[in-house]
Amino acid sequence: MHGNSYKAYTDVATATIPARETEARVLTKAALKLKECQKNWDLENCRTELEEAFKYNQQIWSIFQSELTKPDHPMDRQLRQNLLNLSIFIDKRVYDIRAYPAPEKLTAIININNSLAASLRS
Prior knowledge:
Layout: H1 2-16, H2 19-39, H3 46-68, H4 77-99, H5 106-121
């Protein structure tokens, strides 16, 4: 019985959250996942957690890329191009970290995600 009430609440909450807030939340979640990997870099399961964090982050940015390249997207063309350039940087950084792992390399992705999330909330 309580499970149905909870589901109804989360369905309504999800339906009423503005898209920008949803985007901000997923970017923040991705940043937190990456920050946790950075903090626990030397732990045994770090590489598995890192790959999961990368996958989550790349899913978000792939969606952004798909949306931003639509010809009818309402965002200013220059801003879209800047965000697409950021997405390319993030893709390259992920590949670099996979090839040459170092925890400090995660900082740029974490900062970009957090900065964009903050912009979306303002």
